[in-house]
Structure formats: structure tokens, C-alpha cells
């Protein structure tokens, strides 16, 4: 396996003499998720920990109800707060000489999660370039002044608003500061960062620690926005992918996109498909009941964005209804295209055949899949796609776009090009009118999906960890 040198040229990493110790950087963790990224991180980390991998997982913000007993899950401010408490306890109970030692624990000021800086993104980048010319000590002083002046307002920001970019910068700076604490730095063998929001934090942490950096690509900007894309995100992705040690892509489709869009050598990319839910037993038998009533339900569940192809779903629905009038199309999710989809449904005079329940999570997702006769994922560009596996788990067959990573693994799923509305409509009609076809599809696809596990994914990643550590030790 070919790997790139670390961002700072160092080779000071761990070895195979102990279980790998991983600092993992993520943007969300269940139950507080906005898509499949958090779900993937949960499944992957559980299986990695079963393989004796020690994980410290850092997210920008914790809500207090995350269930992650298999690893250490924390936010940067929580780590800093704990170090402050340890420092204060030492100051209170120790002798003068001990206090002198304790005060060496610096960079332990409290900062809030999801900070929004007082600078614009452009000003912030210029300011970072300016302080890079200062000495290390002066840089620390400047950064402390920065955090003291930063706004404490919290906000999520949309995916292309300046708030998100500010939070990405904020997260990167806080993570790069805490990794310098001896109690954390000495317990890191590898840094593993998920998607572009954490790439700056991964690069800065690798520079500070000299540990190898793996970037895990669940999607790239081309998937989310097409050929245009946000230039700031394109820069972040390009810089991270070119400077990291190694890249994990969630599908061969994603690997080819990374090679094409960012000119990355294929030797630097390892494909590790996502895993699926733990079990694949039908959650209900409502389809038979609906057939008796002569009512069919077709489900779209995902973000209402260009990437997910909701407009193709609506146009296909119009063609289906000319052949089968007793169909209800459910479009579950939120996003910037939701108003446009509602408007288009109204223009087509299909309001009685559509339902928009909004964003679903937890048991509501399971129920939506179980109550559908067919799940359709017409994604324009889908690096993997966990939702078809969830649908199969619920006993509902799927129609997926050929432009999806999961299509590489599911031979017994209906497939169509996202742009071929007529083909999508024809396949929906066939699946609804022929129950024997649906039954055969779900039986075969459940067998396939049962082989798509997080355990297999984790083993591939563990092998990658060990290869990196052996090569650089």
C-alpha cells in the first residue's frame, strides 16, 4: 500500500505492539443527526471497538443523550473543562511546588461549542496567514485573544452559509489545541476524520502531533452540488485529500470521483463500503393489508436537495398515476428543494396523491419503510446510500439509481439511471402490479444485505490502520 508522508514530514507514530489508538473526528453522532454520516460513524465505531480499537471521538457539540459507551465521546470544550477542573483541584490541594507544575497546563480556557467568530471567513483566513509568521508562543497568545473576543452565539447554519464555515474553522482550532495536551497526544496513533467539515481539524492535528491522517470520504462537493460547487468547500476537500496519508472511500463510485475531480492517485484510496443494520427482519406486514384495499404506497426518504433527485421522483410519479391511480407518494425529508417540490406537485394537480411528513427519525423512519410497498432512491450522485439497506431490513423492496455506491452491492434491487424518468416510472409500476416480484426481490435482497456488515467494514479499516503503523514505525 502506498501512503503519503504526514503533513509535517514526521514519522513518529505507534506500532503493532498494542491495539490502535485512534482520534476520530466527526460532525454529528446519533441521535442528533442530519443524514447518514452520524449513523455510519455509530455503526463503524461500534464494530471497530469490538476489534479492540481504542477510539476518542470528537464532535463539535454534545447534547447529553448520546449512547456511546463503546468509546470516549466528547466535545473540545468538554475536554478543556475537565482539564480546568483537574488544574483547579491541583491548585487547591497541592503545595507551592506542585502548583508551579500544574500551571504548565495552559491552553485550557473554556470555549463554547459551535462558536461563531467575529471575523468573516475571508478575514479569518487572512488573519490566520498573518499569525502564521509569529513565533509559537506569540501564536498561542493571539489565539487566546481570538477566543476571548469570539461571539458565544450558537447556531447551526445551513450547509453553505458562512456560519458553517466559521464553525468548521472554530472546530479545527479547538481540536488542534487539545491534541497538544500530553494526556491526549500520547494516546494517539492515528487521526481519522470524516468528511470535509473535519478535514481542517484533521490536518492541523496531524501537524501538531506527527500522527498519520486518514480522511474518510462519505461524499464530495461534486455529489452535493454538481459541477459548480462551493469554491471554499472544494479548496478544503482538495487540500485535505492531497496532504493526508490515506483516503477511505465508501464505494468504487466515490473512489472514481475522487480520482477524477481531485487528481488523486488510486493507490492512495481504499474502498470500504458502509455496513447495514444489525438485523433484516420485516417490521410489519402492512403491504398485504394495503393490497386488499387496493392502495399502494411509494416512499422517498432523504434530504430534499439536488443530490437526492426529488424532482425526478415527482415527475416519475405523474407517469405512474396515469397507469395506477390509487398510489400515495410519500416524500419524507426537508431541504432547500422542498418548497419547489410542493409547488410542482400542485402544478401537476397531484396534491391528493402526495404526502410531505417532514424530517423523520428513529421509530418513525422504521414505520415509514415498513408501511411502503416500494422505496425509491433516485439520487443524482450517491456515494453509498444507507437508506436502501434500512428499507430492506423493514421488508420493503427498493428501486435505486445506478449512480449510487450501494448499487455495487445489491444485485437484487431495481435500478435505473436517475435521469430516466420513464424507466423509473415503468419499474415502479411493475413492482406495484406484481406482488410476486416484490416478494422475490425482498427475499433475495435481504440475503445480500445480510452480508453487508459493519464488522466487515471495520476489519478492512483495522487492516489499514495496522499497515500504516507498520509502514511508518
**Beta-strand content:** 5-15%
Assign the CATH architecture of the largest domain: 3-Layer(aba) Sandwich
The amount of helix comes to 40-55%
Tally of domains: 2
Largest sheet: 7 strands, parallel
CATH class of the largest domain: Alpha Beta
Distance between the termini: 15 Å
Strand order of the largest sheet: 3-2-1-4-5-6-7
- For the secondary structure, the number of strands is 13
- Per DSSP, the total helix count is 19
Average residue-wise pLDDT: 81
Protein structure class? alpha/beta
Identify low-pLDDT runs: 1-6, 8-15, 90-123, 146-161, 284-289
So what's the overall shape? elongated
CATH topology of the largest domain: Rossmann fold
Radius of gyration: 24 Å
CATH superfamily of the largest domain: Glycogen Phosphorylase B
How do the helices and strands line up, and which of them pair or pack?
Layout: E1 21-25, H1 36-50, E2 54-58, E3 72-74, H2 76-93, H3 96-102, H4 121-131, H5 136-149, H6 162-178, H7 182-185, E4 190-194, H8 199-209, E5 213-217, H9 221-225, H10 231-243, E6 246-249, H11 252-262, E7 269-271, H12 286-293, E8 296-301, H13 310-321, E9 327-332, H14 338-347, E10 354-358, H15 363-370, E11 374-377, H16 387-393, E12 398-401, E13 414-416, H17 421-433, H18 435-449, H19 454-472
Parallel strand pairs: 1-2, 1-4, 2-3, 4-5, 5-6, 6-7, 8-9, 8-11, 9-10, 11-12, 12-13
Helix pairs in contact: 1-19, 2-6, 6-8, 8-10, 13-17
Amino acid at each position: 500500500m502506498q501512503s503519503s508522508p504526514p503533513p509535517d514530514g514526521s514519522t513518529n507514530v505507534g506500532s503493532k505492539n498494542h491495539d490502535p489508538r485512534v482520534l476520530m473526528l466527526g460532525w454529528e453522532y446519533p441521535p442528533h443527526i442530519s443524514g447518514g454520516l452520524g449513523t455510519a460513524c455509530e455503526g463503524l465505531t461500534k464494530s471497530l471497538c469490538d476489534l479492540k480499537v481504542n477510539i476518542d471521538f470528537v464532535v463539535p457539540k454534545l447534547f447529553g443523550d448520546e449512547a456511546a459507551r463503546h468509546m470516549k465521546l466528547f466535545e473540545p470544550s468538554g475536554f478543556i473543562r475537565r482539564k480546568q477542573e483537574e488544574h483547579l483541584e491541583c491548585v487547591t490541594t497541592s503545595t507551592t511546588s506542585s502548583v508551579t507544575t500544574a500551571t504548565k497546563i495552559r491552553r485550557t480556557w473554556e470555549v463554547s461549542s459551535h462558536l461563531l467568530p467575529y471575523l468573516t471567513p475571508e478575514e479569518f483566513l487572512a488573519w490566520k496567514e498573518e499569525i502564521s509568521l509569529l513565533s509559537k508562543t506569540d501564536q498561542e497568545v493571539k489565539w487566546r485573544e481570538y477566543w476571548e473576543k469570539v461571539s458565544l452565539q450558537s447556531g447551526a447554519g445551513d450547509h453553505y452559509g458562512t456560519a458553517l464555515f466559521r464553525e468548521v474553522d472554530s472546530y479545527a482550532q479547538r481540536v488542534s489545541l487539545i491534541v497538544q495536551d500530553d494526556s491526549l497526544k500520547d494516546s494517539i496513533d492515528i487521526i481519522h476524520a470524516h468528511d470535509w467539515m473535519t478535514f481542517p481539524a484533521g490536518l492541523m492535528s496531524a501537524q501538531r502531533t506527527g500522527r498519520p491522517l486518514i480522511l474518510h470520504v462519505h461524499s464530495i462537493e461534486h455529489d452535493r452540488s454538481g459541477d459548480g460547487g462551493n469554491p471554499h468547500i472544494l479548496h478544503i476537500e482538495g487540500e485535505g485529500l492531497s496532504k493526508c496519508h490515506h483516503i477511505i472511500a465508501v464505494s468504487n463510485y466515490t473512489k472514481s470521483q475522487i480520482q477524477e475531480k481531485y487528481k488523486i492517485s488510486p493507490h492512495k484510496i481504499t474502498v470500504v463500503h458502509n455496513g447495514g443494520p444489525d438485523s433484516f427482519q420485516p417490521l410489519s406486514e402492512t403491504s398485504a393489508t394495503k393490497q386488499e384495499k387496493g392502495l399502494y404506497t411509494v416512499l422517498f426518504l432523504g434530504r430534499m436537495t439536488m443530490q437526492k433527485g426529488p424532482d425526478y421522483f415527482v415527475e416519475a410519479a405523474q407517469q405512474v398515476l396515469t397507469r395506477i391511480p390509487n398510489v400515495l407518494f410519500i416524500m419524507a425529508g426537508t431541504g432547500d428543494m422542498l418548497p419547489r417540490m410542493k409547488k410542482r406537485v400542485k402544478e401537476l394537480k397531484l396534491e391528493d396523491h402526495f404526502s410531505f411528513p417532514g424530517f423523520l427519525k428513529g421509530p418513525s423512519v422504521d414505520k415509514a419503510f415498513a408501511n411502503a410497498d416500494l422505496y425509491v432512491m433516485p439520487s443524482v450522485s450517491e456515494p453509498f446510500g444507507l437508506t436502501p439497506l434500512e428499507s430492506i431490513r423493514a421488508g420493503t423492496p427498493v428501486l435505486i439509481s445506478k449512480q449510487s455506491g450501494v448499487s455495487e452491492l445489491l444485485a437484487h434491487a431495481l435500478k435505473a439511471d436517475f435521469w430516466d424518468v420513464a424507466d423509473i416510472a415503468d419499474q415502479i409500476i411493475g413492482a406495484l402490479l406484481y406482488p410476486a416480484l416484490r416478494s422475490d426481490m425482498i427475499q433475495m435482497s435481504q440475503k445480500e444485505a445480510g452480508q453487508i456488515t459493519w464488522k466487515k467494514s471495520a476489519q478492512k479499516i483495522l487492516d489499514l490502520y495496522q499497515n500504516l503503523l507498520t509502514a511508518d514505525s
